[in-house]
């Protein structure tokens, strides 16, 4: 794609995309560390995840400001306009993904006696798929690749499948071991958060598709 | 914004030569009656030349040659049956630099109806002048000084006077060739508002260098490039999701 | 690039700047000098003309009392036009009556020096007011040219003494002569007048204007607005430019060859003179007209055409009014030149001795420049002053004509 005649316009867009990429990286790390903290019971790590979420919030504010500035000063049209609007919305969504990771980290202290939980092995696998989705969708945004975005949307099925099976698993476990209900409930919330992360990654994928092609992906 | 009304003017494979140089290349486009159509494109792309074809103003240039079919309400405007003077009364034009006649404001607006005999008597002529000035949004500013010279007005007022002058002959189509390029932003905004008010009563075609203006003012937009018409469609579609790469490059500022 | 001082702040630049300013001052000085020289020449011309010519507006007269009561002259019956009345009174013996009256009042020596046509003046006064015949009257009558010359030049000798004596008695004086402007050409400088030449000039100029202006303007409009731009129009343009530079005497030859063969009985007529001068003036109007029309901005034409004005309407409602000031300027220049032309009119024979003013366009006439030329040929000293006076009349006529045209031009001046 040729460059803009006004080079500063290109610089602005590049900076905006850089912010989104930075947010994406932070969100991925947050998910990964939250899971590690959950599995190993490392409460210090969990605290670190919670603290680092502030950075994500600050970045989202920066994305807002920058996007508004570009719209006011550059009057973007066509794909530039779609990309800026997509970046604006993606910033909000990635911030929410970060919030879910923070939420998972907060629950780490509430779970007792984790070694006994069989479902605990499933959850990291689910989180890995969700994290892959986040990684892929941000790659798709950087590359303006609608095909990759479609693949991310398709992967959400897996995350949903994971969630169903973990849910059934935990419920039957809770029925058999009523003493573990509070910890198991926490795990339910964790699984729910990961499922939400997957949904949000799907939202981002739709916006990437729209920015690239001007339409939402079919069979929504 | 789907409409089933027939187009006010339609052109098929229109080409224009200035001597040996081809300025417009096989342009086919329909001008709808109820919308504002904008022509955009870089300098020298043929949009102004094509506009002037629509009211045969190219006839005044000896080296100009026009080919193709141009119809107004189904009648070929280059047919020998069609009277050029009558055509120009039905298809009016407003120019880039405001060009009021060096006469009084009243005379400027009254000239057209007078030469075409549209008014019987002074009372009727007065009424036409007042109505045209009202429709052009100028009446309140000049009603007490109709005898003042038209050239004593400000730039924006002069352009609205030229629009009133064009309206006075009750045209069906109004062609505007970059009407705001010589005006300041406030005068420009007033003219754009005026165009919005005139929409529906007249078919309006506006050539503009400013994409923002085309986006604000029109419902249909045509993008011209090197004499060809590259893309034509609903304005909101052209500016949010154009089909052609050349269109996209131009409107996003990647052209040149 | 921020280190070096900007090139316009160096000493070398300031030296060059000084030179540029001194060039400005030199140019202004030249301009003022040129204007000053022109004004000086103009002032010299006006002053010398006035000094020489003021005498031409005066003539030497004597007071002659005439008593009609004892003479028995009567108004002729059944006659109403002046020349017939004058003739009838002459037949009755009015000249002798006048001479007798002069002898009584001034002495026989002076009475001999009464102008031979003085009695006609008395006759015309009687024709205007027959009551005079019943009483006495005091008449201011012109002297002969010899007495007048003796008085003005202060010659010694008998005539000079007579003149000085009468002047001392208050019976002879040199006074302002309005009649100069109402009388026609004569052989006697005391009797000569400029009116027939003035009227001839007016009629000729009228013919010239009525022919050259419409033809010139319409030709300019056609050439600029309608004619296709091809070889033929280029040839026409070159021809018209050359015509404007042709010496005026050639037009005289043309007039002689063409107009006089067509109308051989109108040799000295303003009609022929006017036609010849019109041929000469038309190219000037066409050239000025074309430039004025070219200067009308195309945006006005576009605006009118876009409203549906036909080509003729565009030209006559818009282009012509805006081009009119320029056209009028060209007309002024052309007409001023035509007013002062002598050579072509001499060639077509407008050099006759015209004693009565022309009644119409086909009567024999002469024009001011030709009259001046003819009088300048005369030997008599009296004519020298009259010639200068005629030049003043010509200049005044020119000023009035130009003033009228400039007034009209300013009336039509419009800004666009």
Write a brief caption for the model.
The complex is a heterotrimer of chains A (220), B (256) and C (416). Chain A is mainly alpha-helical and 220 residues long. Helix content of chain A is 83%, strand content 0%.
Question: What does this molecule look like?
Answer:
The complex is a heterotrimer of chains A (220), B (256) and C (416). Chain A is mainly alpha-helical and 220 residues long. Chain A is built from six helices and no strands. Chain A has helices at residues 7-40, 43-74, 78-107, 122-143, 146-176, 181-213. In chain A, α4 (122-143) packs antiparallel against α5 (146-176). Chain B is built from ten helices and ten strands. Chain B is globular. In chain C, strands 2-1-3 form a three-stranded antiparallel sheet. Chain C is elongated. In chain C, 66% of the residues lie in helices and 5% in strands. With 416 residues, chain C is mostly helical. Chains in contact: A-B, B-C. Chains B and C meet through α2, α3 and α6 of B and α12 and α13 of C.
What class do helices, strands and sheet pairing of chain B give?
Answer: alpha/beta
Main pleated sheet of chain C:
3 strands, antiparallel
As a percent range, the share of strand residues of chain C is 5-15%
Q: Helix proportion of residues of chain C, in percent?
A: 55-70%
Low-confidence stretches of chain C: none
Mean pLDDT of chain C: 87
In DSSP terms (H or I, runs of 4 or more residues), the helix count of chain C works out at 16
N-to-C span of chain C: 47 Å
Which percent range fits the helix content of chain B?
25-40%
Major beta-sheet overview of chain B: 6 strands, mixed
Note the run of SSEs of chain B as H and E.
EEEHEEHEHHHHEHEHEEHH
| Span between termini of chain B | 34 Å
How are the SSEs placed, and which strands pair?
The complex is a heterotrimer of chains A (220), B (256) and C (416).
Chain A: H1 7-40, H2 43-74, H3 78-107, H4 122-143, H5 146-176, H6 181-213
Chain B: E1 9-18, E2 21-31, E3 36-40, H1 47-54, E4 64-72, E5 75-76, H2 84-90, E6 91-94, H3 105-116, H4 122-135, H5 139-142, H6 155-168, E7 173-177, H7 185-198, E8 203-207, H8 211-217, E9 220-225, E10 228-234, H9 235-240, H10 245-251
Parallel strand pairs in B: 3-8, 3-9, 6-7, 7-8
Antiparallel strand pairs in B: 1-2, 1-4, 4-5, 9-10
Chain C: H1 11-54, E1 58-67, H2 82-92, H3 94-106, H4 108-112, H5 118-128, E2 136-142, H6 145-152, H7 158-169, E3 172-176, H8 195-226, H9 231-245, H10 248-262, H11 270-294, H12 298-306, H13 311-339, H14 343-347, H15 368-377, H16 381-412
Antiparallel strand pairs in C: 1-2, 1-3
């Amino acid at each position: 794609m040729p460059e803009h005649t006004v080079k500063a316009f290109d610089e602005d867009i590049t900076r905006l995309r850089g912010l989104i990429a930075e947010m994406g990286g932070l969100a991925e790390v947050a998910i990964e560390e939250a899971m590690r903290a959950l599995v190993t019971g490392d409460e210090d790590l969990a605290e670190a995840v919670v603290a680092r979420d502030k950075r994500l919030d600050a970045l989202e504010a920066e994305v807002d400001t920058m996007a508004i500035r570009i719209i006011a000063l550059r009057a973007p049209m066509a794909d530039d306009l779609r990309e800026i609007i997509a970046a604006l919305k993606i910033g909000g969504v990635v911030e929410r993904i970060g919030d879910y990771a923070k939420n998972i980290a907060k629950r780490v202290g509430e779970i007792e006696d984790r070694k006994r939980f069989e479902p605990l092995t499933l959850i990291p696998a689910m989180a890995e798929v969700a994290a892959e989705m986040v990684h892929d969708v941000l790659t798709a945004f950087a590359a303006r690749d609608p095909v990759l975005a479609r693949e991310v949307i398709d992967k959400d099925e897996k995350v949903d499948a994971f969630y169903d099976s973990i849910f059934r698993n935990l419920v039957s476990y809770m029925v058999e071991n009523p003493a573990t209900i509070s910890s198991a409930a926490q795990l339910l919330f964790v699984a729910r958060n990961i499922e939400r992360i997957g949904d949000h990654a799907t939202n981002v994928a739709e916006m990437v598709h729209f920015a690239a092609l001007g339409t939402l992906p079919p069979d929504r | 914004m789907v409409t089933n009304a027939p187009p006010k003017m339609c052109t098929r494979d229109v080409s224009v030569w200035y001597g040996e140089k081809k300025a417009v290349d096989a342009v086919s486009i329909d001008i709808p009656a109820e919308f504002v159509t904008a022509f955009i494109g870089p300098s020298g792309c043929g949009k102004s030349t094509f506009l002037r074809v629509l009211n045969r103003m190219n006839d005044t240039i000896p080296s100009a040659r026009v080919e193709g079919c141009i119809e107004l309400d189904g009648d070929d405007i280059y047919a020998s049956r069609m009277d050029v003077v009558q055509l120009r009364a039905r298809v009016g034009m407003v120019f880039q630099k405001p060009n009021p006649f060096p006469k009084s404001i009243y005379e400027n607006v009254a000239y057209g109806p007078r030469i075409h005999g549209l008014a019987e008597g002074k009372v009727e002529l007065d009424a036409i002048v007042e109505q045209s000035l009202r429709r052009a949004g100028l009446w309140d500013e000049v009603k007490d000084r109709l005898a003042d010279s038209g050239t004593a007005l400000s730039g924006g007022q002069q352009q609205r006077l030229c629009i009133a002058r064009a309206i006075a002959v009750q045209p069906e189509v109004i062609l505007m060739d970059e009407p705001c390029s010589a005006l300041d932003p406030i005068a420009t905004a007033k003219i754009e508002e005026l165009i919005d008010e005139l929409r529906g009563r007249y078919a309006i075609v506006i050539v503009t260098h400013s994409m923002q203006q085309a986006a604000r003012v029109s419902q249909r937009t045509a993008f011209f490039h090197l004499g060809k018409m590259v893309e034509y469609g609903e304005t909101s579609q052209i500016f949010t999701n154009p089909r052609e790469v050349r269109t996209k490059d131009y409107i996003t500022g990647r052209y040149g | 690039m921020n280190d070096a001082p900007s090139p316009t702040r160096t000493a070398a630049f300031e030296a060059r700047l000084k030179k540029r300013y001194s060039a400005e001052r030199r140019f202004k000085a030249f301009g003022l000098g040129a204007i000053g020289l022109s004004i000086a020449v103009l002032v010299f011309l006006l002053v010398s003309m006035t000094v020489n010519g003021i005498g031409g507006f005066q003539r030497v007269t004597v007071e002659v009392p005439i008593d009609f009561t004892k003479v028995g002259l009567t108004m002729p019956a059944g006659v109403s036009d002046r020349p017939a009345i004058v003739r009838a009174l002459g037949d009755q013996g009015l000249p002798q009556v006048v001479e007798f009256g002069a002898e009584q009042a001034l002495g026989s020596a002076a009475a001999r020096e009464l102008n031979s046509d003085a009695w006609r003046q008395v006759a015309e006064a009687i024709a205007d007011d027959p009551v005079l015949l019943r009483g006495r009257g005091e008449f201011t009558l012109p002297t002969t040219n010899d007495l007048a010359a003796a008085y003005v030049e202060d010659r010694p000798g008998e005539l000079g003494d007579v003149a000085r004596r009468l002047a001392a008695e208050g019976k002879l004086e040199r006074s302002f002569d309005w009649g100069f402007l109402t009388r026609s050409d004569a052989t006697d400088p005391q009797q000569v007048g400029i009116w027939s030449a003035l009227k001839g000039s007016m009629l000729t100029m009228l013919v010239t204007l009525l022919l050259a202006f419409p033809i010139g303007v319409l030709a300019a409009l056609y050439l600029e607005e309608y004619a296709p731009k091809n070889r033929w129009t280029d040839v026409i343009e070159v021809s018209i430019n050359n015509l404007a530079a042709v010496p005026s005497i050639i037009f005289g030859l043309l007039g002689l060859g063409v107009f006089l063969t067509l109308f051989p009985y109108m040799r000295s007529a303003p009609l022929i003179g006017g036609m010849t001068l019109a041929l000469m003036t038309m190219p000037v109007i066409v050239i000025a007209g074309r430039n004025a029309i070219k200067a009308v901005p195309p945006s006005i034409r576009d605006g009118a055409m876009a409203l549906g004005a036909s080509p003729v309407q565009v030209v006559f409602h818009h282009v012509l009014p805006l081009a009119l000031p320029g056209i009028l300027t060209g007309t002024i220049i052309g007409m001023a030149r035509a007013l002062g032309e002598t050579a072509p009119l001499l060639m077509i024979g407008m050099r006759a001795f015209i004693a009565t003013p022309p009644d119409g366009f086909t009567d024999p006439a002469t024009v001011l420049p030709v009259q001046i030329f003819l009088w300048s040929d005369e030997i008599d000293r009296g004519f020298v002053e009259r010639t200068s006076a005629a030049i003043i009349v010509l200049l005044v006529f020119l000023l009035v004509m130009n003033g009228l045209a400039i007034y009209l031009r300013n009336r039509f001046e419009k800004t666009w």
